[in-house]
Amino acid sequence: MAQVLKKSENNTRELKSLLENLKILANECEKEVEPEKLSLKNAIQKENRKQMQIHARNIVRMRQEIRNYFQISHRLDSMVDSIVESIDSSLETGNSKNLVEEVVAKFKYSSATENMPVFMFEDEKVNI
């Protein structure tokens, strides 16, 4: 049981690190939008329709990418919090037998409520 807890703590730390990296990536992408806006402004001033379309599409793509990074980060954050909560409650009650099933159930529930695909089949069993 101690190995399972240590492994879950390591995985939780790795997920939180991933969350920070996603946020950093999103912020870097936001900084890349500004030069593209200036290029769009210049294309508008020169009345170059082809360049306007290219830069406008780039800005839309970048904004979508930023939104995706933040959305994934938010979903992972809520899942990590939920998993940590499940582990803590199982340790407090001493009911560690159903820990894995409880975590999987919360994952499936959060996936269903957030329109996030579930990466498991219904008949799939989790083995540790």
Report on the structure:
Keywords: Coiled coil. The protein is mainly α and 128 residues long. It is built from 3 helices and no strands. It has helices at residues 2-45, 49-93, 99-113. Helix 1 (2-45) runs antiparallel to helix 2 and helix 2 (49-93) packs antiparallel against helix 3. The relative contact order is 0.10.
Describe the secondary-structure layout.
Layout lengths: L1 H44 L3 H45 L5 H15 L15
Helix pairs in contact: 1-2, 2-3
Keywords: Coiled coil
The mean pLDDT is 78
Number of DSSP helical runs: 3
**DSSP E strands, number:** 0
Strand content: under 5%
List the uncertain runs. 116-128
C-alpha Rg (nearest Å) = 21 Å
SSE string, helices as H and strands as E: HHH
Helix content: over 70%
Category by helix and strand content: mainly alpha
Net shape: rod-shaped
Give a short account of the largest sheet: none
Instruction: Compute the separation of the termini in Å.
Output: 10 Å
